[in-house]
Write a structure and sequence with these properties.
Blueprint lengths: L3 H29 L5 H23 L5 H15 L2 H13 L3 H30 L1
Helix pairs in contact: 1-2, 1-3, 2-3, 2-4, 4-5
Length: 129
């Protein structure tokens, strides 16, 4: 069962991560213009880098309480980018030599995310028109 402390920790981290994403994305876009989503690209790559750093640091040297770990990994990085979790999961499949499953996961995730986007667009357009 999830404790209120755990959920509050994740929520607080998520708020911090979401604000950081907003600020970082807009900062990058000020310098790169608006023709390509460089802000999102940078945020996703940085989020993946931080996920890698944290996962290894927590596994090898630092030991956080489950609540503190959830605050940072699920909350802050989850709010900053869910792409970091996606990349971690795909990377773990590849490390386990489950290349076919990793390819299915990556391809399926991207494909169904885009399908979901278009389904949401169609739903809203139909509902609001």
């Amino acid at each position: 069962m999830h404790t209120l402390k755990m959920l509050a920790s994740i929520a607080a981290g998520g708020a911090i991560g979401a604000m950081a994403r907003y600020l970082a994305t807009h900062w990058v876009m000020r310098f790169t213009g608006g023709t390509f989503p460089f802000g999102t690209l940078v945020v996703n790559v940085v989020g993946c880098f931080l996920m890698g750093v944290l996962v290894e640091a927590l596994a090898l040297r630092y030991h956080l309480s489950p609540t503190a770990q959830a605050f940072v990994v699920t909350g802050v990085l989850g709010g900053f980018t869910t792409f970091s979790t996606f990349s971690l999961e795909a990377g773990l499949l590849m490390e386990r030599h489950a290349y076919g499953l990793a390819a299915l996961y990556v391809g399926g995730s991207v494909f169904f995310a885009i399908v979901g986007l278009f389904a949401g667009l169609a739903f809203s357009r139909a509902w609001l028109s």
